[in-house]
Design brief:
The protein has 304 residues and is α+β, with helices and mostly antiparallel strands. The protein is built from 8 helices and 15 strands. Helices cover 31% and strands 30% of the residues.
Length: 304
């Protein structure tokens, strides 16, 4: 029998599921892990007064800001993946996220001036990282970091250490329905982006992380057009042409970053990227004009 222990964090439900008979200490372990999620949220949240990221966003254009090892490693990885994907996923897009209204979950069309200004403050090239001093500096005023595309995965990766400390070696650790870290063998279902309550595919997991990016819940319509909350940092516009992307990767951080990047990429570019990564897989659902209204693409590195 499996036991699930959950708590709300990062505006979602985090949950640890484990086999009760194998781990009588599982509940204590899960509570420790969930405490760790809350600690990470207090560091990364742009909404929490006094958070480290709020301080970075306010001051890093004036002088380098010192970071702890944990946060410096996260920003460094995000910058590297942004570079690897040509800016398809970029944590410097905080201002874009605001002008489209998604920060307040009240979507709106930005003015041309707003979009121009936000785009000028977006781009991984505006981050200056000092690996010796562990500092970050913004090369331009107005840059804003936002970890909405990676925060849950980062929390899962960090908090899983608490489960290991308690000796819990088989579990499913979820950050909402979009991010999962699995230890041991588990089976999950990928939610269908168009058919409520149905599964797009069954997905077996074994010591891997999963992230799904989609716009089923966060979007708005204007003049008959649908605008996704998933933005293309390169254009400053909502990404289009994909319904959902599910990625498996060795870590939850990497799965989250790449599921967002692949949503922006679309089918062809996603295959190109995965061909260079032997430990990444993806399932992408794209809209089609003919029945049934969608098609499913599966990606894994080509064998050489």
């Amino acid at each position: 029998m499996n036991i699930a222990v959950s708590r709300k964090a990062m505006n979602d439900a985090f949950e640890v599921t484990y086999p009760r008979d194998e781990y009588p200490q599982g509940t204590a372990a899960a509570l420790d892990a969930l405490d760790e999620v809350e600690r990470i949220e207090s560091k990364l949240s742009v909404f929490r007064f006094g958070s480290r990221i709020q301080y970075v966003n306010l001051t890093a254009h004036e002088a380098p800001v010192h970071l702890d090892d944990e946060l410096f490693a996260l920003i460094s990885l995000c910058r590297q993946i942004a570079e690897d994907t040509g800016g398809a996923v970029d944590v410097t897009s905080g201002k874009l996220w605001k002008i489209w209204g998604f920060a307040q979950r009240d979507g709106r069309i930005p003015t041309d001036d707003e979009l121009r200004t936000a785009r000028s403050c977006t781009g991984y090239h505006l981050l200056e990282l000092d690996t010796e001093e562990k500092t970050v500096r913004f090369k331009k005023a107005g840059v804003e970091l936002n970890f909405g595309c990676v925060g849950k995965g980062f929390a899962l990766d960090i908090a899983t250490a608490k489960l290991a400390q308690h000796g819990v070696g088989r579990y499913l650790f979820q950050g909402g329905l979009s991010s999962i870290l699995a230890k041991g063998d588990w089976n999950i279902g990928i939610a269908h982006p168009l058919l409520a309550g149905e599964r797009l595919q069954e997905l077996p997991l074994n010591n891997t992380a999963v992230s799904t990016s989609g716009s089923q819940k966060q979007y708005f319509r204007y003049n008959g057009k649908r605008y996704s909350h998933l933005l293309d940092p390169r254009s400053g516009e909502p990404a289009a042409g994909v319904l959902s992307v599910t990625v498996t990767a060795p870590t939850a951080v990497l799965a989250e970053l790449l599921s967002t990047a692949f949503f922006v990429f679309g089918p062809e570019k996603t295959q190109e990227y995965i061909d260079s990564c032997s430990d990444i897989t993806a399932v992408m659902c794209v809209p089609e004009k003919q029945a049934p209204g969608f098609s499913v693409h599966r990606y894994a590195a080509a064998e050489h």
